[in-house]
Every structure is written in structure tokens, then in C-alpha cells.
Write a structure and sequence with these properties.
20 strands, alpha/beta, 13-stranded mixed sheet, single chain
Length: about 775
């Protein structure tokens, strides 16, 4: 019988900034909905159970359910240990419910077990699948895998994957598994809101969870492991090795924090250079004992003083707040050599100053838990755990490293892709805080765009070249790497009013590399006052960053968004000057609307701006012609349609000029990571400028409908109507021409109505169509 497991995102950190790998950067992969039938309604616990296993275990805790599946004996691979442990998944919708679960209490009371703790976010699920491929090949009968999902999205995606019969057939050997929702009700991973704050929050949570585990379950030892710390061999040989069996902590080796070393290592043959030796949380084993309980309490008390960083806290607490039980002299090579074991492990003993207790620490050598995997030839031959360092802290870099070092296990039993299996594609959770709601399309579109990006970059990178050198975060970085690019303007944003121009400027700033990220271009305090949340949002890299005056003189790529002329005109009528003739305090009557629409100033805005004129210059039939507007549209690198938001977002990073840019979530309408909630509330209130007040709704339902306002607007904006209909054909032609894009959107349930509309629009060969228009304009 077999169990299921899910590892956490990496916790390895950069040397100077303390960035943990397990919480990686951008956010990104769409999550799956709750698997049908997993809720049993009793205390929120979810379970799956097969008939074969129902008779094997009778759960004494009626509040939780248990996922049981029995399989035949695991087919042993050469050099691997087969496991006969049962597959059992118990799901906890909240952390608190885990610690009162009677079955877990009784199971852990029988005899000591090791609780493998791993934190999972959506970005590292494929990395976790690779980790799981290795984990299941070891004997996990004395282990319990505890997966802490960082968001409700990750929780639902993992539970849905493990509930799939296809996945269950691959889970032989995983063993007893717990899935815990660390952040119930949070649709997005916590790191999306504020990465730095998220890191601190998660590091503190790790210490808190560890303390609760060891206090609640005295027979459970805790093994923290990162999702990219691959178990090449069973690590029990490390923490249960005779020389480490009396140690409270057996940890992988790091150098951070350098100012709180627990030991030093001799770096070269001359033994003149010393490196710091510290506990690294990427792979750390805590042996449960009363002494460890006291250390855990001390860490909880002290972590706020150490930047809310658990790795700084554990090393500095032992270094500064504990006395040494041994006589190691940090700067004496002979003393260091005496405390270094034959296998290069370092063992230290410390004594608590306030409350008497002893803590013994074993820090493993890099030969056993390897960090610089490619530094020395044969480095991985004796490695037990490979926690390979990569410069980029994101999932794809880890997968590239796995591929390079031969860690990927291919074949039908591989778990690498179980989280993106089409069988499991269901609507994802919303980014709102309401549990159980569906996610907006933005998250799913971003996820698919990111996936297509990595596939494109990998395919386009010549063999032998580094994939990290094949893409850029933004146009600014690309510009700086290419000497031929001299212009200080990198992008041209044509902001057609009331067509999503504020959202367009968010995209323009993200593509160009303007910071802070996730805001529209605007001049503080904004017009109207309060619509611009900051003073640093102008972007010199973008032509047309604000205002509605197009400038086509440069050679930079042009982007814009268009909107159906009827809805655009009505929306503008209810906005403020200069977008409408209605003065402050005046009512929005039908008579005023007629006056507004008939004014040359407010006619055919789209045609005028594609011709190069200011939006509110008087319309001139001689100057502002449809053929020239269409010809201009053919030259624009990317334009979106407000009526097709999903397809428009998907096409942005498919544009040749932006194909080497890493998709930015803010370009998909997702919340910026460097803005406060209050700023975003202000931005969304005015930046998106959605008309929803009672006067607007009453006007549409009464005056506009009674007087056939649609026909009236179309009559006075015939140029714009023709140009917009051409834009629809051009856009749909470009969309349907993208190889594989529409098929993948359909598989994910993305933009189905938009795709259906596009397939119903008849259009000629786009290249030929634009060629003829440009020649005849």
C-alpha cells in the first residue's frame, strides 16, 4: 500500500538577503477547484477512501476523513527501496484542526515517527512533483508527510491532484500524508501581496508550527525539507547515524548568517581560510525532546529581534544566548579540526543560560547535503540530498537544474506533471477572500502565458546556452543588454480615452521596466484629484505615458486598447471634462447626450487618434479617414479589445516584440506586489473608472434604451464603427493564427465566448489584408 506526499517550496536563501527558495517569486500557476465529494461536512475535514481499505482502518475521530487506496507491491527499481506503507491522505482545512485530530494523536502515540514538513505554493508544484518522484522510492513506513499549502489555491490544486485515479496509481511508496491549508480563504499565495512581508510571516509561521508539532505530539520528530532538496538516497542514514543519534538538531550546512556562526570550516589545504558554518533550514531534522521544546520557545520569543527570520534566529540564539558546552575556538584551525568529524560533519553542544537545558547540533557536510552541485566533478556521487543552488529563485530554474543533473524521472509513473494534467483542469479559486468562489480569468491567463513563455524560451535557446540569458524581465533590461538599442523611449502607449487606457498604462510600465510596479502612469494627485496614489508614477521610458495625444514619430513598438464605440461614448459622457461636455453639477439628460455625441469634438475618437490627432480635436472628414486609421492599426505591435479581455491578455506576450519578456502578473490585472492595499483600492476605484452609479444605470435603462441610443451613437461615429469592425477581424485573425494558443485556452476554459466570436467572424488573409490597406492608404 502507498501514501501521498507534497513538498514545500524551497527555503534556501540568498546569502545576503535571506530569501527562501520555498516561497519563490512570482506568482504564478492557476489552482484547481475542490475535488467533488471531498467535503464530508464534519469539521471541514476532507477524505477519500476505497472499499478495499475501509476495513483496514476504522477512524475513531468522526471529525476527520481518511484517503485510503491500496495498491500492489511497488515494483522495485535498481538501487531503490520498495515501500509497502499504505496510501492515506487526511486533509485539514485549517491548521488548528490538524492539532486536535484524534487519529493523528493516537497514531503518533504508538511509537516515534518522523513528520516530514514541506510548504507548497503554486509556483513550485512541478518542482514538488520531481521531489515526490524521489521521495516515494524510499521506505516511508515510519514517516508522515505533512504538506502545508501556502494558499487555498495550492491546497485545492494538491487535493484535486491527489484525488485523481490517474495520480493515485503513481503514488506507491509515498505513505501516510497530511494536507493542511495554511491560509484558508486566501485565493492568492501570500507572497503576491507583499513578498518581503510574506517571507517574514512564513518564517515565523515555520517556527510556530514546529513548536506546536513537538509540543502536541511528543513522539513526532520534525524534518523540514525544501521542495528542491532532492532525496537521492534515504536521509535516515544521516540523522540516525550513530554519531548524530544524540543530537537534537541535524541540519544541512549553510554560511548565513555570517555574523552568527556555530562553527568554522577549513576552506583549503593550507587551512588558512575559514568559512562560517551555520544551520540551513533547507533540510533540517529536529529530534523531539523537552530540551528541544525549550529551544523552540526561546526561538519564538527571540525571532522578532532577528528580522522575523527563522534561520537568523536559530543561529544567533544558539551563538549569542547559549553557552558552549565544548571548547571549540572559532579562529583556531587546530581546534576546528578537532571538532570536525571524519565525514566532515561538525557537532556542537550548547547550554541554555536561563532555564537549564542542553542542545546538541550536528551540521552535515556539503558532500552529504550538496549545495554547489556542479562545482566539483563527482560531487553528487556520494550525496544523499541534493539541494542544488541556482541563481534564479523560481521553479523553472530548479527544473532546468534537475534536468542538467539528471534528477528528472520520466515515464508513466512520474509525478512531475500531475498538477497540470488536463484531467484535473477545473475552474480555479478566486483571488478574493471568499472561500469556494471562482477565480477571475486573470490568474488563469497569467498562468497559461507563463507556461507558454517557458516552453518558448526553452525551445528557442540554442543547445549549450544558458536559458537564464535567453529572456529578460522587461524592455529596459533587454535594452541594456543590446548595444544597438539607443533610444531612451522603449514603448509607445496610445491611450484612447474610456477604452481601458489606465490599465494600458499599467501594462506599458510593466513591459518597459518602470518602478514601482503595478500602477498606471499618472501625475500626482491625479485628475480627478485622488486618482493618482503616488508621486513617482511617471515613466520616461514610455511615449504617451499619460494624456490622449498620440505620437507615432518614434520607432518603438506601439500598444493600445480599443473599445466598442457605443459603450465607449456612453462611458465618456458620464466621466469628467475633457471627456464630456457635461459640466460639474449638471444632470446627464438625453438632450445633453445628443449635444455631446453630435459635437465634432466627441465624434470618431478612435479614427482621430489612429490618424495621430489629439482625442478631442474637432473631427475632420478629409484628414481623419478610415483607410489611414486601418493602415495604422496594421502597424501596431499589440492592441487589445475591451470586449475580449481574456484573449487580449493572452496575446500580449505572444507579440514578437515582447516574446523574450517574462510575463508580469500586473499586465494581467493582478495585484501589484509593491503597493499597499489602500493604494490599490484607490487605483481600482478611479484607475479602472468603471461607471456604476445610479444615474448612469438609470440613464441606460431609461433614456438611452427608449431613444435607441445605440443607433444614434453609431450614426454619428460611422468611421469609428468601421475601424472597430476591422480591428475585430485583425485581432481575431492574429489570435487564431497563434499555434496552439486557442487549443490551450479551450482546455483551460479560458475565453470560450471570445474564441467562439472570433471563429464566427469572417476575415481574409490578414497579412494580405494589411498589405493592401497600407499600400492604398
Amino acid at each position: 500500500m502507498v501514501d501521498v506526499v507534497v513538498p514545500p517550496p524551497s527555503s534556501s536563501r540568498r546569502r545576503y538577503y535571506g530569501v527562501r527558495l520555498y516561497i519563490t517569486g512570482l506568482l504564478v500557476v492557476a489552482a484547481l477547484s475542490y475535488f467533488t465529494g471531498l467535503q464530508n461536512g464534519l469539521n471541514g475535514h476532507s477524505v477519500l477512501q476505497t472499499e478495499d481499505d475501509a476495513a483496514l482502518d476504522t477512524l475513531e475521530d468522526p471529525k476527520s476523513t481518511d484517503l485510503r487506496n491500496e495498491f500492489g507491491k511497488f515494483q522495485q527499481s535498481p538501487g531503490l527501496v520498495s515501500s509497502l506503507s499504505s496510501f492515506s491522505l487526511t486533509m485539514f482545512p485549517t491548521v488548528d484542526e490538524m492539532f486536535v485530530n484524534q487519529r493523528l494523536i493516537e497514531m503518533s502515540a504508538q511509537h516515534p515517527k518522523d513528520l516530514v514538513v514541506i510548504f507548497v505554493d503554486t509556483t513550485y508544484l512541478e518542482t514538488f512533483g520531481v521531489w515526490l518522484d524521489h521521495y516515494k522510492h524510499h521506505d516511508n513506513s515510519e514517516r508522515i508527510l505533512s504538506i502545508f499549502a501556502i494558499s487555498e489555491i495550492a491546497y485545492d490544486k494538491v487535493s484535486a491532484a491527489f484525488s485523481s485515479p490517474t495520480t493515485q496509481a503513481k503514488l506507491r511508496g509515498v505513505g501516510e500524508t497530511l494536507l493542511v491549508n495554511l491560509n484558508p480563504g486566501k485565493g492568492k499565495d501570500m507572497r503576491n501581496a507583499d513578498p518581503d512581508r510574506f517571507l517574514n510571516k512564513l518564517w515565523v509561521l515555520r517556527l510556530h508550527i514546529m513548536q506546536r508539532i513537538i509540543n502536541t505530539f511528543p513522539n513526532l520528530n520534525v524534518l523540514y525539507t525544501d521542495a528542491d532538496a532532492i532525496w537521492l538516497k534515504d536521509p535516515v542514514q544521516l540523522y540516525n547515524h550513530p554519531q548524530h543519534q544524540s543530537s537534537n538538531i541535524v541540519a544541512s550546512r549553510g554560511t548565513y548568517p555570517e555574523w552568527c556562526p556555530l562553527a568554522m570550516e577549513l576552506h583549503d589545504d593550507e587551512k588558512m581560510h575559514l568559512n562560517t558554518v551555520t544551520i540551513c533550514f533547507g533540510f533540517t531534522y529536529f529530534r523531539n525532546s523537552p530540551d528541544l521544546h525549550q529551544l523552540a520557545q526561546n526561538l519564538q520569543n527571540a525571532v522578532a529581534r532577528y528580522r522575523n527570520d527563522d534561520q537568523i534566529a536559530i543561529n544567533c540564539v544558539l551563538n549569542l544566548q547559549y553557552d558552549s558546552n565544548d571548547d571549540l575556538h572559532m579562529n583556531d584551525p587546530s581546534s576546528i579540526a578537532a571538532f570536525t568529524q571524519p565525514d566532515k560533519s561538525v557537532i556542537r553542544s550548547f547550554f541554555g543560560k536561563v532555564i537549564a537545558h542542553n542542545i546538541k547540533v550536528s551540521i552535515l557536510p556539503y558532500e552529504q547535503v550538496t549545495r554547489r552541485c556542479g562545482r566539483d566533478e563527482g560531487m553528487l556521487e556520494n550525496s544523499v540530498v541534493a539541494h542544488c543552488y541556482t541563481d534564479l529563485k523560481e521553479g523553472q530554474s530548479k527544473l532546468n537544474a534537475f534536468d542538467h543533473f539528471g534528477f528528472l524521472i520520466e515515464g508513466q509513473n512520474s509525478l512531475r506533471h500531475v498538477f497540470d494534467n488536463p484531467e484535473l483542469d477545473t475552474p480555479i479559486l478566486a483571488s478574493s477572500s471568499a472561500p469556494g468562489t471562482r477565480a477571475s480569468w486573470e490568474e488563469a491567463a497569467y498562468s497559461l502565458s507563463l507556461d507558454r513563455f517557458w516552453r518558448h524560451i526553452k525551445a528557442a535557446t540554442p543547445e549549450g546556452d544558458s536559458i537564464e540569458n535567453s529572456y529578460y524581465p522587461d524592455l529596459k533590461a533587454q535594452h541594456q543588454s543590446t548595444k544597438e538599442l539607443r533610444s531612451t523611449r522603449l514603448l509607445n502607449s496610445v491611450r484612447i480615452p474610456k477604452s481601458g487606457s489606465s490599465a494600458l498604462s499599467v501594462k506599458a510600465r510593466a513591459l518597459s521596466g518602470c518602478h514601482p510596479d503595478g500602477y498606471p502612469c499618472c501625475k500626482f494627485p491625479g485628475h480627478p484629484v485622488g486618482s493618482c496614489p503616488r508621486k513617482d508614477l511617471m515613466c520616461s521610458l514610455v511615449t504617451g505615458c499619460t494624456d490622449h495625444r498620440p505620437d507615432y514619430d518614434g520607432d518603438e513598438a506601439v500598444i493600445t486598447t480599443l473599445r466598442d464605440p457605443v459603450s465607449r461614448s456612453v462611458s465618456a459622457f458620464f466621466y469628467h471634462y475633457p471627456h464630456t461636455s457635461v459640466k460639474h453639477g449638471e444632470s446627464h439628460t438625453w438632450e445633453k447626450f445628443v449635444e455631446n455625441i453630435q459635437s465634432p469634438r466627441y465624434k470618431n475618437i478612435l479614427t482621430k487618434m489612429l490618424e495621430g490627432s489629439y482625442a478631442y480635436v474637432g473631427f475632420d472628414e478629409v484628414k481623419h479617414t478610415v483607410p489611414r486609421a486601418k493602415a495604422r492599426l496594421c502597424t501596431i505591435a499589440w492592441f487589445g479589445l475591451s470586449e475580449m479581455p481574456v484573449s487580449s491578455s493572452m496575446m500580449l506576450y505572444e507579440t514578437p516584440q515582447f516574446r523574450k519578456l517574462l510575463p508580469n502578473p500586473v499586465a494581467f490585472g493582478l495585484q501589484a506586489s509593491d503597493a499597499t492595499a489602500a493604494e490599490h483600492a484607490a487605483e481600482e476605484k478611479d484607475g479602472l473608472r468603471v461607471n456604476s452609479d445610479s444615474e448612469y444605470k438609470e440613464f441606460l435603462a431609461a433614456s438611452f434604451a427608449t431613444n435607441d441610443g445605440t443607433s444614434f451613437v453609431m450614426q454619428h461615429n460611422q468611421h469609428d464603427m468601421e475601424v472597430y469592425q476591422f480591428a475585430e477581424k485583425l485581432f481575431c485573425g492574429r489570435l487564431l493564427a497563434k499555434i496552439g494558443l486557442v487549443e490551450e485556452m479551450k482546455q483551460g476554459g479560458l475565453g470560450l465566448e471570445e474564441i467562439e466570436k472570433c471563429t464566427s467572424i469572417g476575415f481574409d488573409n490578414i497579412e494580405e489584408l494589411c498589405y493592401n490597406i497600407q499600400n492604398n492608404a
